[in-house]
Specification:
alpha+beta, 16 strands, globular, disordered N terminus
Length: about 525
């Protein structure tokens, strides 16, 4: 070996701990030629040995028994046992038991073992370019709004990244829906006299923008400020009316290692309690709770919510909320379209409590959510048994709901995909509420097809019982009345592209109007079409 190459290899050995064992083995395979050459080689070996001795002091797990015998020891025997001992010690020092793969000039590449491959695979799987935005999504809700990965803009031109760098996150979406009765003789009317969705072709649009600011960067556990706005438009004004105003203005943080969650501000508790399907046009009808004062997306109200997590599944959540108008959401929005007013006429305080058990899907573990809640409202309501009396306080509601994954389609890949079943039961006093009871059964599938892993199919059957006092009052006036409304709805919601959903469905409704009807409005078969776009 040329002395200059021996010196190069020793230099590599002292500067690169991943190659020192290979180069040290090569240094024993030369034969010196001449005194000058021997002197150079001796010096190079001295440098090499010193460098390897320093590196060897930081290595662990050396096993001399596994080291191959170097070739120099086979060319001759020595009678000096001390010299042999020194050679053995040197060999043990410079040759570790499990040398890492060679890297560097003049050293061939060696493939990593299975353990290194597994480590590399795990690292690749855990790298998610959108994971950094998770902490910027709105917290404290049951509603699972898609993250930035499922938006049409994602991180175009780096705007979302630039905002995230300073602690700002955002999500916006537009939900547009259309309903139209397909039965003949549907008693079409003017918009002003329309009695139910779909009697005339009915279009609605709701547009949202939510912005969050991360306070955990200042040491506040999970701290977050949320500001949101909403704009809605209806061709049929009654379920509206049209408005532009706040959707939320909230502060959130946790205590005691996330055992306690606090959220306060202008909140929409329809996204904090009860839970409905997220499919745009499918899900539980929460009108029984809205009439009893629970705040909505279009009617946020001041509230303080506290959630206590007994563990990662059991919880209890309470709210002290300013009730929406006791005359309903329409009256509330008409009086307070921006949502910024502290209160509306005759509105009091609503107390809500919900206890629940919630576990997420995992391989072999079914997704389960059980919850039950009650609400007490101090607002002053009109007594339906005798509307001429003074308004009364003491309204309340109760509900029980459950959803359970019945079958996992892809347990090892995406455990949440599968067939689900669920029910909801809601009730309120019939003397203060037009809806006295609501029952629902639902069967739905998330990701029903391998080729469509993000789609949703749902079949929902419901029955709404109307207040017996309101029905009797209308009957006394000689009107044609009904005591309940029954509906069966089937929908398919397709995930067409990142951030784009489209839904289509049919809904058969027996007695689609509220309490009173005509022979022409006794049945409806509504075609339902919707789009949902996130950005």
């Amino acid at each position: 070996m040329d002395p200059k190459y021996a010196m190069r290899d020793c230099l590599l050995a002292t500067t690169s701990p991943r190659t020192y064992s290979a180069t040290a083995a090569l240094s024993f395979n030369f034969r010196p030629r001449g005194k000058q050459s021997g002197l150079v080689v001796a010096l190079s070996l001295a440098v090499c040995l010193v460098g390897n001795s320093v590196l060897a002091q930081t290595a662990s797990g050396l096993d001399p028994s596994n080291h191959p015998v170097d070739q120099a020891s086979k060319r001759g025997k020595t009678s000096d046992r001390a010299a042999k001992l020194r050679i053995d010690l040197i060999r043990q020092t410079i040759r570790p038991s499990a040398p890492p793969p060679a890297a560097g000039p003049g050293v061939p590449f060696v493939k990593r073992g299975n353990a290194d491959k597994a480590t590399q695979t795990r690292r690749q799987k855990t790298i998610d370019p959108f994971e950094r935005y998770n902490n910027l999504r709105e917290k404290g809700m049951w509603l699972n709004i898609p993250g930035p990965a499922d938006t049409i803009d994602q991180d175009t031109d780096g705007v979302r990244s630039a905002l995230a760098d300073v602690g700002i996150g955002y999500i916006g979406w537009t939900h547009n829906s259309f309903a139209n009765n397909q039965l003949p003789n549907a008693a079409r009317s003017t918009i002003a006299n329309q009695l139910y969705m779909g009697q005339n072709p009915t279009f609605a649009s709701a547009n949202f923008m939510i912005v969050t600011y991360d306070l955990s960067r200042f040491g506040i556990a999970d701290g977050q400020i949320v500001v949101g706005a909403e704009q809605q438009y209806w061709t049929w004004e009654r379920p509206g009316p049209d408005r532009v105003g706040i959707n939320t203005l909230a502060y959130y943080q946790t205590f005691f290692d996330r055992t306690l969650e606090l959220k306060l501000g202008y909140l929409r508790n329809q996204n904090e309690f009860t839970g409905t399907l997220f499919g745009g046009i499918t899900g539980s009808n929460m009108s029984a709770l809205f009439q009893a004062g629970m705040s909505t997306n279009a009617a946020p109200t001041p509230a303080v919510n506290l959630k206590y997590n007994f563990d990662d599944r059991l919880y209890n959540k309470v709210s002290v909320q300013r009730s929406i108008s006791p005359d309903g959401a329409y009256a509330h929005i008409t009086e307070n379209p921006t949502g910024l007013n502290w209160s509306t006429a005759n509105a009091g305080i609503l107390l809500v409590e919900e206890a629940g058990y919630k576990s997420k899907a995992a391989p072999g573990v079914a997704d389960t959510w059980l919850r039950a809640g009650v609400g007490l409202n101090s607002s002053r309501y009109t007594n339906l048994a005798d509307p001429k009396q003074q308004r009364e306080s003491g309204n309340n509601f109760h509900y029980i709901a459950a959803d359970r994954q019945l079958w996992q389609i892809d347990a090892s890949g995406t455990p949440s995909r599968g067939i689900y079943g669920g029910f909801s039961i809601m009730g309120a006093p019939p003397d203060l509420n037009r809806i006295s009871q609501y029952y629902e059964l639902r069967l739905y599938a998330k990701g029903p097809f391998d080729s469509r892993p993000s789609d949703l199919i749902a079949i929902v059957a419901s029955n709404t019982s109307w207040s017996k006092f309101a029905v009797d009052a209308a009957l006394a006036k000689g009107q044609l009345v009904h005591r309940d409304t029954t509906a069966i709805t089937g929908t398919y919601t397709a995930h067409l592209a990142p951030g784009i959903y489209a839904g289509v469905g049919l809904s058969y409704i027996h007695n689609p109007t509220s309490i009173t009807h005509t022979p022409q409005t006794e049945h409806a078969l509504n075609l339902l079409v919707s789009t949902l776009i996130f950005f």
